[in-house]
Amino acid sequence: MTPNDAKRPLQLNDQGQLRHFLSLDGLSRELLTEILDTADSFLEVGTRAVKKVPLLRGRTVCNVFFENSTRTRTTFEMAAQRLSADVITLNVSTSSTSKGETLFDTLRNLEAMAADMFVIRHADSGAAHFIAEHVCPDVAVINGGDGRHAHPTQGMLDMLTIRRHKGGFENLSVAIVGDILHSRVARSDMLALRTLGCPDIRVIGPKTLLPAGLEQYGVRVFHDLAEGLRDVDVVIMLRLQRERMQGGLLPSQGEFYRLYGLSTARLALARPDAIVMHPGPINRGVEIESAVADGTQSVILNQVTYGIAVRMAVLSMAMSGQTAQRQLNSESTSEEQI
User: Fold this and answer.
1) CA distance 25 to 246
2) DSSP for residue 46
3) Cβ contact 298:292 at 8 Å
């Protein structure tokens, strides 16, 4: 997938509102800003004694995770519950998929349960897009991460974290460090940063963990960590995804940490008020030193909190877009019958 793979016609309704949320590719700066603004307004809900708003009351959100996840699955569940939706989480390990059922047949069975929204995580790139193309037109599909392709809600929670701590994107230098090759988070972050006007996006990693074609994202590539970190405002560390690696891409985890691990000394090369982010789960002593992960410049736990608000924003906006499209279709049908 490349930045030219625009998903706009599928993701948006006829009025340009969000209908599915599959990728940040092709979405406008105005729409991304609307998601951030909506998420900002939902942060307050998490501080209430009763942490609920009625926006999705009577709706059913079905979390279908074909790939293991704890943080993403839990925050999607909490987001849907805070919007007062009924929430079903499919246990894939006991589902019919493990008995040979195809993705298409699983989809049809879930549709028969009258869910209003599917949150999909899958190991294969394009799985959420496939489902959105074939699902009943009244059902919204949210991509909870597909293969190496996209993790758009993680991308938006990263953007909310940066905006809340740095105020905006127009004057920032942002470094994304580590396993870019296998990271759907990196791809979503690069797209979002470029769309939101960040002028200096740097990716840092060994040649074996940097994919071809990175220049399409408007980034600068560094192989030397010290050079890439100099005077940046934001450092996004990535998890080393050994489970996705085939062959000897790295000599060892120790060698990776020696060359690309974020230590206190290396963080000192960034601006004094630079923030440190990580999508989790953290491999301490492999990607990041514990003193940095737990230090005053770390906003890693803030990312988790913001993730619930971003997912509330995406769920509510997609449902609203689906409802508006249904009304448009109904009005169009009525006019044709006159």
Assistant:
1) 28
2) G
3) yes
